[in-house]
């Protein structure tokens, strides 16, 4: 214990530094909870960890004490330092968390004068005011209270609290990694479903475009029949689908013959055109049905992944993180979980009805 009492860093003993870190981490958590309650009307655990602590506030206040205590008599320098130091820490902390989990736990991109969405001028100016208040008014009281506690009692208490702190940090790191991994998977499923939808649309659009280029009014009936067939294919058995396809091919043959007469094409060219059209239609129908099946499988996987991601209580784990940071954004495209679910619902509304964020 004498080591902690006698080791001095920037004018503070290691014992006091560790005590201040715990205290200000807890006070920072209180500030976050109050701010969230005032702005959202909900009382939630706003800390990154499960316990009532926000480590970034503890680190920020230690930096302020180290570098700004000598400037406490110069209010301008104290304010400027209070703007710069916490903002730099917030920038580095946000960037580090993004690199670790590919997740932005807070994002200021919608605010003016932001840097990468990690910091913004509005909150940086507030940090300056907060640093002044802490150094001039609050910290002297905190320091006096710490000095009232017998060193042995304080040392034992800190050992217990830091043990809990460390266990919480490990558990949170695991939960955050799991959440990031599941958001990665959910994002990939959403992108895949979008790609499948585009491919299905392209199949339909290309077919319609080719018909429009080669045939005129006499092929309108065939296009309508093809659209009707597409709508009913997912309800037909393979045999029924094949029978319907043959019927549509017969209609195509007749339509092509009418076009042939109108365009003065010979019979051989018309038969060849119809054969190619029927063959292409069959291939496109098979591809369309395959894509539809794949899309259903992706939707089922996305439902399971979404349930896993939301799993957990409001007190611990991934569920708590999502409740604490409802606007967190993930991945290179910075998409929130709600936006991912909205995209999935747009792609496959029947499977995701009612799966929005609470």
UniProtKB/TrEMBL annotation:
Keyword annotations of the record: Membrane, Transmembrane, Transmembrane helix
Family matches, as InterPro entries: CmpB_TMEM229
Annotated transmembrane regions: 12-37, 49-68, 75-95, 115-135, 142-165
Protein name: ABC transporter permease
Source organism per UniProt: Faecalibacterium prausnitzii
């Amino acid at each position: 214990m004498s080591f902690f009492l006698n080791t001095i860093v920037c004018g503070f003993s290691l014992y006091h530094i560790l005590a201040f870190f715990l205290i200000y981490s807890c006070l920072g958590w209180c500030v976050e909870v109050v701010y969230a309650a005032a702005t959202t009307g909900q009382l939630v655990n706003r800390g990154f960890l499960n316990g009532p602590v926000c480590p970034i506030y503890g680190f920020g206040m230690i930096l302020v004490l180290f570098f700004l205590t000598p400037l406490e008599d110069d209010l301008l320098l104290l304010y400027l330092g209070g703007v710069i130091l916490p903002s730099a820490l917030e920038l580095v902390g946000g960037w580090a968390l993004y690199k670790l989990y590919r997740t932005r736990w807070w994002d200021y991109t919608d605010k003016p004068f932001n840097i990468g969405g990690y910091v913004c001028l509005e909150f940086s100016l507030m940090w300056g005011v907060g640093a002044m208040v802490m150094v001039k008014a609050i910290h002297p009281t905190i320091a006096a209270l710490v000095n009232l506690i017998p060193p042995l009692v304080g040392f034992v208490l800190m050992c217990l609290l830091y043990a809990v702190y460390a266990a919480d940090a490990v558990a949170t790191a695991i939960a955050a990694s799991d959440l990031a991994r599941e958001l990665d998977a959910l994002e990939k499923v959403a992108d895949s479903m979008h790609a499948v939808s585009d491919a299905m649309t392209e199949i339909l659009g290309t077919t319609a475009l080719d018909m429009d280029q080669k045939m005129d009014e006499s092929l309108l009936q065939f296009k309508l029949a093809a659209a009707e067939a597409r709508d009913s294919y997912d309800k037909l058995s393979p045999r029924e689908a094949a029978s319907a396809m043959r019927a549509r091919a017969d209609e195509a043959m007749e339509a092509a013959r009418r076009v042939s007469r109108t365009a003065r094409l010979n019979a051989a060219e018309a038969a060849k055109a119809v054969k190619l059209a029927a063959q292409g239609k069959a291939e496109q129908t098979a591809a369309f049905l395959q894509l539809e099946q794949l899309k259903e499988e992706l939707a089922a996987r996305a439902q399971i992944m979404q349930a896993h991601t939301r799993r957990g209580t409001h007190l611990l784990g991934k569920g708590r993180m999502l409740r604490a940071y409802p606007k967190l954004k993930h991945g290179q495209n910075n998409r929130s979980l709600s936006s991912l679910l909205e995209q999935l619902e747009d792609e496959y509304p029947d499977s995701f009805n009612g799966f929005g964020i609470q």
